[in-house]
Predict the structure.
Amino acid sequence: MTVTLTSQNPARLSADALVVAVAQQDGAPVLLGADWLPEGLRADLLRDARTLAVTGAADEVRRIPATGLTAHVLVLTGVGEQPSPTAETLRRAAGAATRELAGTASVALALPAGDLEQVTAVVEGALLGAYGYTRYREQDAATSAPVSGLTVVTPLAKDKAAAAAVARAEVVTAAVHATRDLVNTAPNDLYPAAFADLARAAVKDAGVRSLKITVLDEKALVAGGYGGIVGVGQGSSRPPRLVKVSYTPTRARAKVALVGKGITFDSGGISIKPAAGMEAMKSDMAGAAAVLHTVVAAARLGLPVAVTGWLCLAENMPSGTAQRPSDVVTIRGGKTVEVLNTDAEGRLVMADGLVAATEEKPDVVLDIATLTGAQMVALGYRVSAVMGAEDVRSEVVAAAEASGEQFWPMPLPVELRAGLKSKVADLANIGDRFGGMLTAGIFLQEFVGSTPWAHLDIAGPAFNEKAAHGYTPVGGTGVGVRTLLGLLEARAAR
């Protein structure tokens, strides 16, 4: 996709669609940033908008004839009751417009973009919304294809900082799209070895010398004492992998480790899940996908931060070789875990990844996982959770707020640790029924030692099974990538 900044009068822009922001004010639609429209034409557009019952509500996208304009069609995108829209409001409005304009070749956006923050938000949102996944489609692939050309109207069209913001937005949104692609891939095509191959390809395509990849196969995992990953993956005919992706720039200002859960399909194992909704379990590798493309994006951006990503990949399947409830596995480093429920498998592979990550003594370790259904019970489908050391947790929240993602800080109550006691091992893989999200975080805390750490649970927000909204499509969302990158950039700026 090409992105162009222009200061040209939007009325004279040649495009298939011209997008204008509409806000709600006293129950009536109001055009934002449309001073370039002749007064008579603006009045006609508002009259048409009222006739078509346009409200200006967030996520509302309506097309009307572009009478008097060079563009073929005028598109009104709602920002809600926002006479002075925030960056996230603009990001969402731009994304909603480009998402609804799938199949359109060229789109011009005449949204409020008078300063650098607004330009960045409009470009990011438009790129995030211009996403389509058509790998398995034939009949409607053309109409589902995303917008291919974007023009953003701004007085900063020749500003070097604005050009740099566009370049960054292209890298960041490409990482989000690549993460979405992995999450959306069918599990018969995306299994641990296939995921590892795609990670190799992503590293190679990045073309950054300081970006390296190492893949441990099932034999190396056994030899290395990665009992959690081996145990979870032993029920599948497609064996597990541990992928290490390292970006090591010269004179790095910080050293960060990222650990991602990569269960390429989660049947629950012997503790099998109900059939209803199991198809969504192809998304149980969203954390590993986010980690992979965060590291690649950090390398492409040339951040002065050393970043190592650990992708803990396994397929959790029931079979004669699958691990059983009451099995005891030994995590790397020697700690033993009694498996009381094979569907609490994510924490087992993550435990191995966390130990491996902390062995390299990073400044901070962050793990990201579609870990618990309890996350959705607590926070719903759009808000992720973050737990861990208070300062690191706050760092994640700040990065999320700046990027437009929602992460809510959650506690790790010490009294819940007692529920993880095992009669035969160092700890059990499940605890009490209530507070399951927090108990899972407490379990992971056992494997980070004194390393500053935060755990990001993205179980609900990683995969959108409901209607598309803003720049978020149905299916894989790519959640976490922008927050993790924002945190890395903040560390680089220290």
